[in-house]
Amino acid sequence: MLDARRFLSDPARMGKVTAIVMQMYRNTPNHKPQWSRPALLTPDVNPDNVSWKAFLGDAPAREFDPHRFIHWRLFSDYSGGTVSENMSQQIGFWYKALGLQIPASATMSAGTYLWRDGREVPDTANVSLEQPEGLLISWSSGFGNNQLGVTENVLGSNGTIVRGNQGLRYIPQKVNRPDGVEIAGRSAHAPQVHVQNFFDCIRTGQEPNCSFDLGFRVSIACRMAIESHLKGRTVRWDSNKEEIV
Q1: Rounded distance between C-alpha atoms, residue 154 and residue 164, angstroms
Q2: What stretches of the chain show up as alpha helix (H) in DSSP?
Q3: What sign does the CA torsion over 124, 162, 137, 78 have?
């Protein structure tokens, strides 16, 4: 985040940001579907040991099912799938860095194309978020090939910020910044620094780096994408009523 803010501190460095292109692709052996944990289905997973009613919460009532309990990520009653688990983390970073608000609209196309194992949440997805700030976020994800990896590209008329496994990098658009040079991110931190910030804020009452409001905006964006998929159409955010329509 320190590198992102440094790259964004000079408006001329990026110009007008009109798009963010994100990818989240991974793979597992053919006999090990993503989120499948059969080893956890032991005899101990039974009605005597599981508070099944508490697990269901507001979800539809049904008879105890150890498979649904262990593999809750596979079912839309309890899980937003890859959108909630993965897209949330990627858009959360840029929602904070760029101060983005809840999307004006969301469109999601997705399907279960790889594993026909009874799961309800998609294994392949494409999401488009139209931001009120005048930019488009495109996020694609798949669980059957990791060639594209996990990347984010913030596309400005004067430059690009690339985020991947090696941190952040700024790349100028020579057409508008002929004298611009690439800049490698240089910030580093201990692995536990995010949790440490959270604990520190509990003790001091200060606002954590990831605020409640940030979580709210990201959660609504993810919910909009999921609603779009379930309804089979684009959904929009009514800011006056604070409702997805």
Answers
A1: 12
A2: 2-8, 11-14, 52-56, 66-70, 81-82, 88-98, 193-204, 212-231
A3: positive
Cβ neighbours of 170 (radius 10 Å): 23
Q: What is the pLDDT of residues 7-65, one digit of tens each?
A: 999 999 999 999 999 999 999 999 999 999 999 999 999 999 999 999 999 999 999 99
**Does residue 25 sit in the same domain as residue 43?**
no
Q: Is 14 helix (H, G, I), strand (E, B) or coil?
A: helix
Number of separate domains in the chain:
2
Sign of the CA dihedral 192, 148, 234, 106? positive
Residue type at 120 in one-letter notation? E
Please check whether residues 111 and 167 belong to one and the same domain. Answer: yes
Q: What is the pTM of this model?
A: 0.93
23: enclosing H helix or E strand: strand 17-25
